[in-house]
UniProtKB/TrEMBL annotation:
<dbReference type="GO" id="GO:0004146">
    <property type="term" value="F:dihydrofolate reductase activity"/>
</dbReference>
<comment type="similarity">
    <text>Belongs to the dihydrofolate reductase family.</text>
</comment>
<keyword id="KW-0560">Oxidoreductase</keyword>
<dbReference type="GO" id="GO:0005829">
    <property type="term" value="C:cytosol"/>
</dbReference>
<dbReference type="InterPro" id="IPR024072">
    <property type="entry name" value="DHFR-like_dom_sf"/>
</dbReference>
<dbReference type="GO" id="GO:0050661">
    <property type="term" value="F:NADP binding"/>
</dbReference>
<comment type="function">
    <text>Key enzyme in folate metabolism. Catalyzes an essential reaction for de novo glycine and purine synthesis, and for DNA precursor synthesis.</text>
</comment>
<dbReference type="GO" id="GO:0006730">
    <property type="term" value="P:one-carbon metabolic process"/>
</dbReference>
<keyword id="KW-0554">One-carbon metabolism</keyword>
<protein>
    <recommendedName>
        <fullName>Dihydrofolate reductase</fullName>
        <ecNumber>1.5.1.3</ecNumber>
    </recommendedName>
</protein>
<dbReference type="GO" id="GO:0046655">
    <property type="term" value="P:folic acid metabolic process"/>
</dbReference>
<keyword id="KW-0521">NADP</keyword>
<dbReference type="InterPro" id="IPR001796">
    <property type="entry name" value="DHFR_dom"/>
</dbReference>
<dbReference type="GO" id="GO:0046654">
    <property type="term" value="P:tetrahydrofolate biosynthetic process"/>
</dbReference>
<dbReference type="GO" id="GO:0046452">
    <property type="term" value="P:dihydrofolate metabolic process"/>
</dbReference>
<dbReference type="InterPro" id="IPR012259">
    <property type="entry name" value="DHFR"/>
</dbReference>
<feature type="domain" description="DHFR">
    <location>
        <begin position="6"/>
        <end position="165"/>
    </location>
</feature>
Length: 171
């Protein structure tokens, strides 16, 4: 039996599910970035190519698997390429925890497989061209939520939430 890593999604979305505009985040939230770094430090990232190449993308200092239709990219020390989600997960069979960083289509493909959602809700509605997939909230338990007020460094208030997938018994 092959080992499969625990898959987690980490993302930030507006109240209208926007996660991006022109391959950038539509907000600047320094304390949310700190949270992201704390949660993902030393972990493996699984991401789509456009998200990986975004100007404001964060990369794992440990290991990055990038999904691309052209996996014959130049090899680099901490970057590997895979054609699709299944082959990306197969590359990561020896990892314990893997964070899925998007974009929208990668989130949609990975959502049925993930055990946890680290999902920041930015308390605003914004224009965007990339959206987080619709969630069936009946499948998720809210484990923790940390609210952050808008302030001089944060244009919008936001809540950093952790959800775990409900077991069959809980549904």
């Amino acid at each position: 039996m092959t080992h499969k890593p625990h898959l987690y999604i980490i993302a930030a979305m507006s109240e209208n599910h926007v996660i991006g505009q022109d391959n950038r985040l539509p907000w600047h939230l320094p304390d949310e970035w700190k949270h992201f770094r704390k949660v993902t430090d030393g972990k493996t990232f699984l991401t789509g190519r456009k998200s990986f190449e975004a100007p404001d993308a964060l990369h794992s200092s440990y290991r990055n698997v990038v999904l691309t239709r052209n996996p014959n990219q130049e090899k680099q020390a901490d970057i590997e390429y895979a054609m699709d989600l299944d082959s990306g997960i197969a590359l990561l069979k020896d990892e314990n925890e893997v964070f899925v960083l998007g974009g929208a289509s990668v989130f949609e493909q990975a959502l049925p497989l993930v055990e946890k959602l680290y999902l920041t809700i930015v308390h605003t509605t914004v224009e965007g061209d990339a959206f987080f997939p619709k969630l069936d909230w009946d499948e998720w338990n809210l484990i923790s939520s940390e609210y952050h007020e808008a302030d001089v460094h944060h244009q919008y208030a936001f809540s950093m939430n952790l959800y775990t997938r409900k077991t069959i018994m809980e549904k």
